[in-house]
Amino acid sequence: MQAADQPLLTTKGLTRRFGGLVAVSNLDFEIRPREILGLIGPNGAGKSTTFNLISGFYKPTAGELFVFGRNCTGKSPLAISRMGLVRTFQHGSLMRSMSVRDNILLGTIHGVGRGARRRERVAETAEMLGLTPYLADEAGTLPHGLQRLVSIGIAFAARPRLLCLDEPLTGLNQTEVANTLTVLQRIRDEFGCSVLLVEHNMKAVMSVCDRIVVLHHGQHLATGTPTEIRANGNVIDAYLGHRHGH
After folding, report:
1. Is 159 left (phi over 0), alpha (psi -120 to 50) or beta?
2. Domains of the chain (ranges, CATH numbers)
3. Where is the ABC transporter domain (predicted)?
4. Phi, psi for 49 (deg, rounded to 5)
């Protein structure tokens, strides 16, 4: 397999137990170069645990994690992020009392160089996310949708090869959702960055993702294109059936 085609992330038998509870069981999936991959499933399916496992915040009970072809099982979040896998957090990771500019600057601490290079990176990131008019504003004063974009901006400022987003669309109105999805497509198309999207908004996932991985009770239920997932009887039974119209 050529390096260019090598998956950016691969899990093999990834398992995490909390006491007697198996939160994630024997999970195999991969994220490919230049794709937007959705990770979905009903509440309690193990999405957040999986997210924490692949970003190094939880250590697996069993199984292995490969990031950019290297075995990263048990590595720290910092080691994994320095390799180029950067994540956001469900409730945002911005510093509310700091300016938008200084927030995005935080994301450039590693590997961007100094001074002018970092300022350029902040300007480019803000431009791409539509945040240029707000650079001087205190992040905590912005509307919720813009705060979510600032959180993505902090993560993307490092120009990761894989950007992992934890429910970035929560609480956004339709316009903000559409705007954010456009940003994700630009991140992929213009920078060749893959995106992992953990998200409840099914309509958004179906419209933006190249492939979707479905979890149910901590186990892998299905992987496929949005069209395949929509038509998958197991997924409909587990998930889509009782969320019809969402």
Report:
1. left
2. 3-243 (3.40.50.300)
3. 9-242
4. -65, -45
d(C-alpha 223, C-alpha 208), whole Å? 15
Pairing verdict, β 85-87 and 162-166 = parallel
Best CA proximity match to 164, nearest among 240, 60, 219, 93: 93
Instruction: Report the Cα 146 to chain-centroid distance in Å.
Output: 17
Rounded (10°) angle between helices 144-156 and 115-129: 140
**Non-local CB neighbours of 50 within 8 Å, separated by 6+ positions:** 11, 14, 24, 27, 39, 198, 215
Q: Are 121 and 106 in contact (CB under 8 A)?
A: no
Report pLDDT for 242: 52
DSSP-derived 3-state class of residue 106: helix
Residue 14, strand partner residues: 27
CA 92 to chain centroid, in Å, comes to 12
**Interatomic CA distance for residues 154 and 81, integer angstroms:** 13
Q: For the segment 121-162, what is each residue's pLDDT rounded down to a tens digit?
A: 999 999 999 999 999 999 999 998 899 999 999 999 989 999
Contact 69, 30 (CB under 8 A): no
pTM, two decimals, is: 0.90
**Tokens matching residue 216:** 């149910």
Check: CB of residue 89 under 8 Å from CB of residue 144.
Answer: no
pLDDT at 76: 94
- Measured CA to CA, the distance from residue 21 to residue 8 in angstroms comes to 29
**66 three-state secondary structure:** strand
Strand pairing of 162-166 and 194-198?
parallel
